[in-house]
Design a protein that fits this description.
Helix content is 36%, strand content 15%. The radius of gyration is 26 Å and the shape is elongated. Strand 17 and strand 18 form a beta hairpin. With 524 residues, it is α/β, with parallel strands linked by helices.
Length: 524
């Protein structure tokens, strides 16, 4: 069941809107859809009008980011992205901000709109300097810029920058000032969030024009784009999904919270059952179980599979009910939401046939996924669950996803959206591909990218917490679509890390998995 998402839209006359993790949902357009959207917008505007709007948006954001700038450098490339830069340079110059353009390309070969934008900037008195020459050689100021605007490539790049463009990108990075990228950091793939080659701009801010792109929010894109801003350029009503210019994915936002009636009881909140925790890895299962409790499941059972130690009461979480797998299966197999694989080791292999055959809802993580990847009979059981009316959510990291797809993790990371879609189709399941810009995919539904979370989550056990939290949410609403539950859980998981360890604090401090559970309880 697809999410019913309504994008937030900025006002036409405002400074572009910052795309914050809690401000969505937003539609995302891959390169083909973004170009179709641009072609439609061009047809609906007078000649040169769309580029004027784009340049105005860039100039407004530049003034907001550097209101006291003594010098702004605008690096303009050989296409329409460069044209946006020429317009921004002219408007900044006319507003009283000292501005220089650094040109990379042959002025006589610019597209028509960009040619006019360059001519108007020159007529307004904006200094136009070749990238290849130093300012002092041309009698211009050698003052260091306070802001650099990257208008070299944007959406126009389809292959790795080379030659003069690659050299310009490398030189731009040495200017020692914050960088504002126009639409996309030059050299970034708009679909995958990966660099097209070795030359790519590392921006502090990116202003997306007309549409947000998936590459802004996943893989290396989150680091390379910096803070993402958005301006629709007056085209607030985008085409619907399925249209050539319609969205190809969604950026998720805060999930709806459903209040329980006062007469609710623990049975109304559902049962979650964690199966995992083999020898030496009981902590992983315990973290998942604690997270399921914190998410609000009425009863949480833990079947730890360790054999070398006696697993008894969790003194830090006495609410957990621990049962041997066989005992718990007789009670829970046909009704509980199962969370399987966290620290499961080899021992979880024996449990999978029963769980895949009979559990109505199952979250598969870690070692459960690794066993399925090498066992055709388990793969068949997983693929058949949807046909039996059973729902499945897989929560792999890139290496686990690669094992399931029979490829390597580099191929998964090269196109995370495509990998998640392929895995969802192959398993008839919802897939949560973890990582920077976690992807949630399901058959027949536009995928979602998650904007919340930061590197503080790069610690042992945070994935177990996600699996447990997801299962705990699902236990309370067993009839809710697995895709919606997964999107909600992923966003809340990342947002808790943003609140507990803001990326902006500059410390890079890790977040312990047990502390993450407390943060989830406080922020959800």
């Amino acid at each position: 069941m697809p999410l019913r998402l309504m994008p937030r839209q900025p006002r036409r006359d405002a400074v572009p809107v910052r795309v914050a993790a809690d401000a969505g949902p937003w539609p995302l357009h891959g390169s083909a859809a973004a170009r179709a959207l641009e072609a439609r917008a061009l047809a609906q505007n007078a000649p040169h009008e769309l580029m004027e709007r784009a340049g105005l948006a860039v100039a407004r954001l530049a003034r907001a980011l550097a209101p006291s700038a003594r010098l702004v450098e605008v690096w303009c490339g050989p296409g329409n992205n460069g044209g946006d830069g020429y317009v921004a340079a002219r408007l900044l110059h006319l507003s009283g901000t000292a501005t220089q353009v650094r040109e990379c390309g042959m002025p006589g070969r610019l597209p028509a709109d960009a040619t006019q934008a360059r001519w108007r900037a020159q007529e307004a008195g904006v200094p136009l300097l070749p990238v290849s020459q130093e300012a002092e050689e041309l009698g211009q100021s050698t003052q260091a810029p306070d802001l650099v605007i990257d208008a070299l490539l944007g959406l126009g790049a389809s292959r790795a920058p080379e030659g003069a463009l690659a050299a310009a990108i490398a030189r731009l990075q040495t200017r020692g000032a914050p960088v504002l990228a126009v639409d996309l950091p030059s050299g970034l793939n708009p679909d995958t969030g990966q660099p097209l080659g070795n030359a790519v701009v590392h921006a502090d801010h990116t202003l997306a024009l007309l549409s947000l792109k998936p590459g802004h929010f996943t893989a290396q894109g989150r680091d390379l784009a910096g803070v993402v801003w958005f301006d629709t350029l007056g085209h607030e009503s985008g085409p619907p999904p399925g249209d050539a210019a319609g969205p190809t994915a969604w950026l998720t936002g805060p999930a709806r919270r459903t209040a329980l009636p006062h007469a609710a009881h623990k049975g109304r909140r559902g049962d979650a059952w964690v199966v995992g925790g083999a020898d030496g890895m009981v902590g992983a299962a315990a973290l998942a179980a604690r997270a399921a409790l914190a998410a609000g499941a009425g009863r949480v059972y833990l079947s730890a599979l360790a054999r070398s130690t006696q697993v008894g009461l969790d003194p830090g979480q006495p609410e957990l009910m621990q049962r041997p797998f066989a005992t718990a299966a007789a009670l829970l197999l046909d009704r509980a939401t199962a969370i399987v694989g966290c620290g499961g080791g080899e021992a979880v292999r024996e449990c999978l046939p029963q769980l895949l055959s009979r559990s109505p809802r199952v979250v598969l993580d870690a070692d459960a996924l690794n066993h399925i990847a090498v066992a055709p009979e388990l793969q068949r059981l997983l693929q058949g669950r949807a046909g039996r009316g059973q729902a499945s959510v897989l929560t792999p990291h890139p290496l686990e996803a690669a094992r399931l797809l029979g490829i390597d993790s580099a191929a998964v990371q090269a196109d995370r959206l495509a990998a998640a879609h392929a895995l969802a189709a192959a398993t008839a399941s919802v897939v949560v591909l973890k990582g920077s810009g976690t992807v949630v995919a399901a058959p027949g539904v536009l995928p979602c990218l998650n904007p919340s979370g930061n590197a503080a989550l790069a610690t042992a056990g945070t994935g177990d917490v996600l699996a447990g939290w997801l299962g705990g949410l699902w236990a309370q609403q067993p009839g809710r679509a697995a895709f919606e539950v997964a999107c909600a859980a992923v966003w809340q998981h990342g947002y808790a890390a943003d609140v507990a360890r803001p990326a902006a604090d500059g410390r890079g401090a890790p977040l312990l998995a047990s502390d993450l559970i407390a943060a989830l309880s406080a922020s959800a």
